Every structure is written in structure tokens, then in C-alpha cells.
């Protein structure tokens, strides 16, 4: 039998790689140069955008220059620019330039960081980074973790480890039927906590929603009351989720008091610090996270307030062995004598994903290229910008703050005298859309105590005070026009 001949159509060499990546680099450089003058978000609707993105998928290859030409509308017309100085919506970081370069190198190496044998160096760098971040939070020696796709995966992974550690019997083999497991989180906790309970077979109702105080922080007295009620009813509490930086307002739950409650009741303490955890990198803000070092697990998203590109989140564990107990599998095709081979930890055994990209590289490279001192200055500056916006709001007769500023989120509404709350809610909802259409800034919203608010979140290393001034000017000008039209 004759051996098949080579098929090398896909086997590009350095010259082809440089030609195509050069086209992409030109687009990227042009984007960085033009970004401040572009609208933050595209004006096109879904139908128009879908037609524009109906790009050819040819039988024969397209030249790199043609690929670049086809992608220009995606880059300059059809993308929300989360790195734009005026992007203030949600909690989506701006994306560091070193992080983008790291993604190219990581994709070129293409390790699978689920198995050590497929990614020795990448695995060890990820574990080193996890130990370093764990130490920033004050976790003890031996604490570690893994990179994840985002807070949803981190929270799910943590809650599964908590469930498996506290459930009676062999819950991995036998399931949770009849166990009556319940957990606790504030009414301001992220929606992915309830989603995780659903995926774990507990049901969303297993998450007890704890009321918050005037600062939108969990009330520990209400937590204790809920625990007492559940214990009296024969339920089995296993975990409390505290939030360090809520999505709506940036509030931080009273971590030391919550940790005390968990210690008294032998409960797992998970702290969702996906957003607010970055305060640990700024010395002037670190005290806000006092008590976080007592957590069993911590969710933290560098792609939020460390500005790294999507996706680059992580879960840290006081005892990584708890993660391995919850996720390790015994399959013949991954069995290997580690002592004989010299391999290290399979990170795929610490969480639900075995096919894992080298996402730790963009976090390490961003920290290495900028240095932690620069990060400390920028994170503190974002808090100053939020406070500046809050001051501008309080100075204007037609604007009203709707929450205290704890971290880098400020919420407010357009509220001229003589308009009832229901009308103001509708007016501010329309106003948010009009501000976005204005193109200079892009806020999002929060509903606080039933009232619709405009919301600005400063997790963008390109944003400065002029953006705050533009947001206030747009709010007042467009708001007054809407109010006049309504009257």
C-alpha cells in the first residue's frame, strides 16, 4: 500500500503568518488611534448588523488584504467599543494592550491547560499566578485556584465544592435528592448564584435572599434569622455567599461579621469579589476588603477591574484539595503515573472544564508590562472618578444620587422637581437610550429600591474626568428635552 501524500494547505509558515497578522495589527493600531472619536456603540439594529456581518465563507482562500477589508465594518462600525473612554456600562474592563499581545502568543502556542502533559509551562505559570493573587487577598500558604471564563463559572465551581464538602454521603455519586440543602446570599448578589443552585440540582429557591441595609450591604441580623428559621424547619444550610462589590452599586457586604456567622455555624464562606477584588491591588482601598482572607473560596475577574481582555477570571480556594475532590474524574484515557512521568497538577481536575485555553498569560503579561504600582494608581483613580461624578450630580438641582459610592460605581437619576417617581422611572429609562445614541458616553442602569437609575462604572484605563463632564452634560441636556416633550 502506498502512503498518502502530504496535504499542506493549512500548514502556513512564518511569511503567511506575518502577512495575515500584519493586516490585523494594522486594524488594531487604527482602532486605537481613532477610538476616542468613534461612537461608543453602533447605531445599527440587529437586522442591519446581521446583514453587514453576512461575510463570505469561500471554498477557495481569500487574500489577507481582502480579509482585512471585510473586517473593517466589524471593527469600526458594528462593535460596541468596551475600550472606548466613554464606555461606562456594566462591569466590563477596557482590555489591556499587553493582554491582546498575550492572546496572540497563547493562541500560537495553543496548549490545552486542562492536562499538565499538554501544557506544562502554561499550567505552572497559571498556578504561580493563582498563588500570587491568593496571597494578595491574604489567603494562607497553600491556597491556589484556577482561571475560569468568568464569574458565573467561578461561582458555580465554588458552590459545587461547597455542596460536596457539606452534603452527607457521596453526593457526587448519589445526587442531592431529599437533602434539603440551602445557601444564603444578599438580595443584591449576582444572578449567577441562583443559576449555580439550579445547575447543582438544588433549585433557585434553595438560595435564601437576605435583605440589605441602606448601603445595599447584607444585613447579618437577617442572615442569622434566616439560618435559625431553616434549622428549625429541618433544612441543611451549607454556604453563605458574601459579595465584595455588588453589580448594581459596588457595595461590600460586612465580611468580618459574615465570616463570624459562618464560623459559628460551620458553613462554607464564598466571597464573590469578581468586581471589587481589585481593591486588594490599591493600598488605599485594601481595608475595604478586611475579612476576605477568611473565605473558603473567592471569585475574582481580572477582566473587570484589572482591565485584561475577555475572558480572564479566576477562582481561588483556601484548600485546593476541596476543588479536586469536587471535580476530579477517573478515566482511563487520562490515567498516568505522575511519579513515573514527572507531570504536575491537571488543572482540569480543579473545575468543570478540561479543554482550557492559556488565559493566565494575558493577566501575567499585563501585570508584568505595566507593574503593580501602575495598577494601584489607576484603580484608585477610578474610585476618584466615581466620586467626582457623585459630586457633580449632587451639585446639580435636576440630578439625584441613588446610592453611596463605595468603589468605582456611581448611580443617579435625572429628577427635576414636580415629576412623580413612576414618570421619572420611564423618563430615565428613555434617557439612558438617548445618552447612548448621543455616542460620547455609554452608561447602563440599575433598579434600586424599585427606582430606575442611570449607572456609571469606572473600570476603564482610558476614562478621565472629561468623560464624566460629558455624561453629566448629556444627561441634563437630553433629559430636559425629554421632560419638555413629555409635558
Task: Please give a quick description of this structure.
The chain has 487 residues and is an alpha/beta fold. It contains 17 helices and eleven strands.
Can you give a write-up of this model?
This protein is an alpha/beta fold and 487 residues long. It has 2 domains: 103-370, 3-Layer(aba) Sandwich (Aspartate Aminotransferase, domain 2); 372-486, Aspartate Aminotransferase, domain 1, CATH 3.90.1150. Helices cover 44% and strands 12% of the residues. The protein is built from 17 helices and 11 strands. It has helices at 14-34, 46-52, 64-76, 97-109, 120-136, 151-166, 171-174, 192-199, 220-232, 255-265, 302-305, 320-327, 338-341, 360-370, 372-395, 421-438, 465-486, and strands at 144-148, 181-186, 207-210, 236-243, 268-272, 297-300, 313-317, 399-401, 409-414, 444-448, 451-457. The strands form 2 sheets. A 7-stranded mixed sheet has the order 1-7-6-5-4-2-3, with helices on both faces. It has a 4-stranded antiparallel sheet with strand order 8-9-11-10. Helix 15 packs parallel to helix 17. The termini are far apart. The mean pLDDT is 97.
Task: Note the topology.
Elements: H1 14-34, H2 46-52, H3 64-76, H4 97-109, H5 120-136, E1 144-148, H6 151-166, H7 171-174, E2 181-186, H8 192-199, E3 207-210, H9 220-232, E4 236-243, H10 255-265, E5 268-272, E6 297-300, H11 302-305, E7 313-317, H12 320-327, H13 338-341, H14 360-370, H15 372-395, E8 399-401, E9 409-414, H16 421-438, E10 444-448, E11 451-457, H17 465-486
Parallel strand pairs: 2-3, 2-4, 4-5, 5-6
Antiparallel strand pairs: 1-7, 6-7, 8-9, 9-11, 10-11
